[in-house]
């Protein structure tokens, strides 16, 4: 069986290959290692292999890991799961990034609960396939939410995130990612702080990179299957 270090290395090689194939600059795509359900010891293995960006989906589990790994102070923690408004404080207090802002109330609470000393980086989640099972704003709800976030002093609007409908044909994946890229470019033209397009997972990473992803979120490809 491959080790976490080996799988990490091949994920990075795939990212590099896809980036070059898309004629994009090297290092324009970051790797977020999604460690949900995996033990702290797995995160440490990835860390020792050089990984610094980690993503968690479940707020309680994520906070436990953030606290357990406090001494690894160059880890950047990303919250990428759905968030109920009564749990925003945990994200505001413990994470560096929040990828799944999808309504004003969540943004407001995060802003109110974030310490003024350190900005919380946020992405707005877009439901690009209009999928009933996915959260996220529709493209026409994006501009007003972005404007509201941009005015919040403790948040920095960094970009957009999406989770497309699973198991679609490649042509459909490409068209959803291309729509995201268009929304991202429009947003970037208005807000200079916007630099992140969070899209692509283990099953669709090359397609996401082809279309302009700047951060891929890989779980299974690094840590193996989840129970
Ligand atoms: C679990 C998860 C991932 C990683 O998925 P894999 O298919 O295991 O790579 C990425 N993004 C989000 C939002 C997730 O919940």
Largest sheet properties: 8 strands, parallel
Q: For the residues shown, what is the average pLDDT? A: 97
Per the CATH scheme, the topology name is TIM Barrel
CATH class, anyone?
Alpha Beta
- Number of helices, where a helix is a run of at least 4 consecutive DSSP H or I residues: 9
Dominant shape: globular
| Number of strand elements | 8
Family: Belongs to the pyridoxal phosphate-binding protein YggS/PROSC family.
Organism: Paraglaciecola algarum
Keywords: Pyridoxal phosphate
Protein name: Pyridoxal phosphate homeostasis protein
What can be said about this structure in brief?
This protein has 227 residues and is α/β, with parallel strands linked by helices.
How is this fold's topology laid out?
Elements (H helix, E strand, L loop, with lengths): L3 H18 L8 E5 L5 H9 L4 E4 L2 H10 L7 E4 L8 H7 L2 E5 L2 H10 L6 E7 L12 H12 L4 E8 L7 H21 L5 E3 L6 H6 L4 E4 L1 H4 L4
Parallel strand pairs: 1-2, 1-8, 2-3, 3-4, 4-5, 5-6, 6-7
The structure holds pyridoxal-5'-phosphate.
Pfam family, one: Ala_racemase_N
InterPro entries: Ala_racemase_N, PLP-binding_barrel, PyrdxlP_homeostasis
Function: Pyridoxal 5'-phosphate (PLP)-binding protein, which is involved in PLP homeostasis.
Explained architecture:
This protein has helices at 4-21, 40-48, 59-68, 88-94, 104-113, 139-150, 170-190, 205-210, 220-223, and strands at residues 30-34, 53-56, 76-79, 97-101, 120-126, 155-162, 196-198, 215-218. The two termini are 17 Å apart. 43% of the residues lie in helices and 18% in strands. It has a single domain (4-223), classed as Alanine racemase (TIM Barrel), CATH 3.20.20.10. The chain has 9 helices and 8 strands. β2, α3 and β3 form a beta-alpha-beta unit. It is globular. The longest helix has 21 residues, at 170-190. An 8-stranded parallel beta sheet has the order 7-6-5-4-3-2-1-8. With 227 residues, it is an alpha/beta fold. It binds pyridoxal-5'-phosphate. Residues 34, 36, 57, 80, 163, 201-203, 217-221 line the site of pyridoxal-5'-phosphate (PLP). This is Pyridoxal phosphate homeostasis protein. Pfam families: Ala_racemase_N. Belongs to the pyridoxal phosphate-binding protein YggS/PROSC family. It comes from Paraglaciecola algarum.
